[in-house]
Design a protein that fits this description.
It is built from 15 helices and 17 strands. By secondary structure, the protein is an alpha/beta fold. The chain folds into two domains: 139 residues, Aspartate Aminotransferase, domain 1 (Alpha-Beta Complex); 254 residues, 3-Layer(aba) Sandwich (Aspartate Aminotransferase, domain 2), CATH 3.40.640. β11 and β12 form a beta hairpin. α12 packs parallel to α15. The longest helix is centred in the first third of the chain and has 20 residues. It is globular and about 70 Å long. Bound molecules: pyridoxal-5'-phosphate. The site of pyridoxal-5'-phosphate has 15 residues, from α5. The site of pyridoxal-5'-phosphate (PLP) has 15 residues, from α5.
């Protein structure tokens, strides 16, 4: 399979000049250890196109000021750029802009829900249902608030292929379950969960749902409204945006009933020593000076993804995933973790007899950036019975030639370690 001639490609993906897209990412032109960089760590953080880099740079060069505070020209330009990015981000995921709280990322978004929604509403014996494939960001905040309010954590299981066991999950949705927090796409297994169906089942039973969309938003079209969840958290730096950016969408009724998480400037209407009144959502949850340049850059990332087309990106990455999986399956001693029917371009693997960190270190010497370790998913690693895996995570800017090179490099590394 080559990038230029791909009989599998349907028009959406085939009409895009992926090589030109790739050329938009300056860092992909560099070398490491004298070899061309091959970046297979996009699930960790994505690379940034020049449009995002230039927009962030231009913000600091030409418009830098604080938001929502000053009437001078720069202040208004900065506010317009910041709120404009919120509006485009909201449209991108099909929600209302005034229901989209801008955060520093998924971690802050989930903590906001834990402390402002769950802690005040859950009590002793109430159950928070999680799944075995969660990132620590969707485990630890719930543990912290459960300790304080007496709630109990329960865990939904996965099948040997790495899919959620849906029948078991629905059986676990008992009357004491108040909240279900689960990932849209697993950062270790690549599993894409049937979010709309799960949320429908939860809603029928009066269970509030939070979806961790960190690994979904950058890689497939996501219509949050159509999913039917209560909360959806995602992060900007995995979707071509700057680090320290992200968002939480929440149903209006939750945003209205939730008390603020952090107090300070921006989130207030009037401050008296006797009593303070708060701004309307989403500003009620955005205390202090935000990452203005970052959010403006995230707006440029949204423009880039929208112009490329999320359906085309999904299709391209599916083709790369299939090609990479088939190629790795042909190598003796390679074991892939996660064989879900619906899967994103994340391949966790091990090579017989080799430690994940040794593999990643030797691959780095060949120019290949893959992540090794527990991937912030200790409970999942314990469940699959390994302390660490290597993870190759692909994005639309990767190529089949890079995959071919990777397979060769892996063969070489395997010999060195064997
Ligand atoms: N959830 C998942 C599934 C992730 O992959 C990550 C990042 O790796 C996070 C949450 C945390 O995102 P952030 O560190 O941007 O808050």
């Amino acid at each position: 399979m080559s990038d230029a001639v791909n009989p599998e490609a349907t028009p959406a993906s085939a009409t895009i000049d992926w090589a030109a897209k790739r050329a938009d990412f300056p860092v992909l032109a560099r070398t490491v250890h004298g070899k061309p960089l091959v970046y297979f760590d996009s699930a960790n953080t994505s690379q940034k196109p020049r449009q995002v880099i230039e927009t962030t740079d231009a913000f600091y060069r030409e418009h830098n000021a604080n938001v929502s505070r000053a009437v001078h020209t720069l202040g208004m330009e900065a506010t317009d750029a910041y709120e404009g990015a919120r509006t485009r981000l909201a449209a991108f995921v099909n929600v209302r802009a005034d229901e989209l709280v801008l955060t520093s990322g998924t971690t802050q978004a989930i903590n906001l829900v834990a402390y402002s929604h769950a802690l005040p509403t859950l009590g002793k014996g109430d159950v928070i249902l999680l799944t075995r494939m969660e990132h620590h960001a969707n485990i630890v905040p719930w543990q912290l608030i459960a300790e304080r309010c007496g709630a109990v954590i329960r865990v939904a299981d996965i099948t040997p292929e790495g899919e959620l066991d849906l029948d078991a999950l629905y059986r676990q949705m008992t009357a004491d379950v108040r909240l279900l927090a689960f990932t849209h796409v697993s950062n270790v297994l690549g599993t894409v969960n049937p979010v709309a169906e799960i949320c429908r089942e939860a809603r029928r039973r009066g269970i509030v749902t939070l979806v961790d969309g960190s690994q979904a938003i950058p890689h497939r079209p996501v219509d949050i409204t159509a999913l039917g969840c209560d909360f959806y958290a995602f992060t900007g730096h995995k979707m071509l945006g700057p680090t320290g950016t992200g968002a939480l969408w929440a149903r209006r009724e939750h945003l209205q009933s939730m008390p603020p998480f952090l107090g300070g400037g921006e989130m207030i209407r009037e401050v008296r020593f006797e009593k303070t009144t708060f701004n309307d959502p989403p500003h009620k949850f955005e205390a202090g000076t935000p990452n203005i340049a970052g959010i403006v850059g995230l707006g440029a990332a949204v423009d880039y993804l929208s112009a490329t087309g999320m359906a085309a990106i999904e299709q391209r990455e599916k083709q790369l995933l299939q090609y990479a999986t088939e190629s790795l399956d042909r190598i003796d001693g390679v074991r892939i973790f996660g064989r879900a029917r619906e899967k994103a371009a994340v391949i966790s693997f091990l090579v017989e007899g080799a430690h994940a960190h040794d593999l990643a270190t030797l691959l780095d010497l060949e120019g290949y950036a893959v992540r090794s370790g527990h991937h912030c998913a200790h409970p999942l690693m314990a469940y699959i019975g390994v302390p660490a895996t290597c993870r190759a995570s692909l994005a639309f800017y990767n190529t089949v030639e890079e995959i071919d090179g990777f397979v060769k490099a892996l063969g070489k590394v395997r010999k060195l370690l064997g």
